Structure formats: structure tokens, C-alpha cells
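Box 3.1 A note on notation
Throughout this textbook, protein chains are presented in two layers. The first layer is the amino acid sequence; the second is a C-alpha cell string describing backbone geometry. Keep the layers aligned when reading.
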Amino acid sequence: MARISRFLRAYVRRARKLRALLVVAPYRRALRHRVAASVEHEHTPLSHDYLTILDVGANRGQFALVAARRFPRASLICFEPQEGPRRTLERALSWHPRLRVAGVALAARSGNAVLHVTRADDSSSLLPTTELQIDTFPGTQVVGAMPVLTDRLDTLVPSTELMGPVLLKIDVQGTELDVLKGASGMLDRVDTILIECSFAELYAGQALADDVISLLHAHDFRLVSVVGPTMDRDGRVLQADLVFERSLS
């Protein structure tokens, strides 16, 4: 019965998401490119009318589509090292007048690295997957590896180029802390950070949520919301999106 109940809940979630995708024209057009906008972020609490959005780990543009709809005045700068997803993003958002896409993996330093490519390419990472990741998210086993260039965010996007308010979204499958370290020179120009964090090791050697919270606290950000937690069978949170705002104090 428990398995049937989980199946029914998943079916209802998919049906609701499809309905939400079909009623919005840009989302409907993106489906032709096999891109399903992350409509769950339509209701993520983001408190400004952003003029710059940095989408780190953009994949095929799932979040970028939602960001473009919620904040139509914003410039959208996306970072995605995988060529296939990156080209799909460019097609799905070809109508956007202020879109910029960079084919680089953001990190704490510039150089070269190996990306572990998973069957579900939005789970690809600079870190190897763990058994917990594969068990929790079927289809995320590694199927290949590809060399990628890495660079710092504050090198690629100097703070002088940022028009505020600024939203920084990070979804990089385990290397969130390295991305933040590579953004240290421009974090004082960022107003809001939306970042996927793990509370258990889904990728080998990854930093966990408390490490991210500690670093951002040192940069005068405060945690204001926890969104869309994924839990294990015992009710423990494995992963969630965290929203940080710059402290005004």
C-alpha cells in the first residue's frame, strides 16, 4: 500500500506540473525542446524585482525560464558546462533579449576539471556520486566523464557589471561552497542567494548545508527560507533549496 501511495502522489505531482506548464506560453514552447520549467520556483520567496540574475548550473534552462517570467526586466546570465544542455537552453530561451550563456563550470579557482556525467544530466557534478544519491534519485548513476574549464564567478562577472538588485541561484550538485568561494569578490553586490544544499553526502566529499550557512553568515547573509526539502524514508532531510538575503543590520 505504501508503494502504491507513493506512486499516486508522484502521478498527481506530475499531472499538476504538466498543467502548470501548459497554461504559460513560454513554458509551453520550451516543452518542444524537452525543457520543463521548474514551476515549483514560481512560489519561492524572492523579495526583490531583480535586474540581474546569475544562474549557476543552469542545465537546460529549467530555472531560467521561471526567472525570466517572474522578473522580465532582468538580465539573465547562465553558466552550464555541458554542451548539449547548454545548446538546449539557448534554443528554449532564444526569445530573451538579455540572455548570456557561458560554457564553464564555476569553482573556487580557474583551471581544468573532470565533470562526472550522469544519466540524468542535471545531476552531473565535478564530484563522484555516492550510493545514497543513486538510491534516492534513480537515474543519476555516472555514465561518462568530460573535461571542463573552471573559473571564478567574480572573474567572469566583475561586480562593476552587476545592476542591482541581484539574485544568485546555485545548483551545482555538491560544489556549492566552491562556487561561493569563487564569488567572494562580488558577493557584496548580491541581494539574494537561492542555493541547493545537502544535509547528507550525496556527492563524495561535498560540503554540507552548515558549511554553506557558515560562509554566507560571514558575508552578512541570513537564512530566510527553506524550500522543497527532499526527505529519506525515515523523514530526515537530505536536500533542500535555501534562500538567503543580505542582512541590513
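The chain has a mean pLDDT of 92. The domain at 37-246 is CATH 3.40.50.150 (Rossmann fold).
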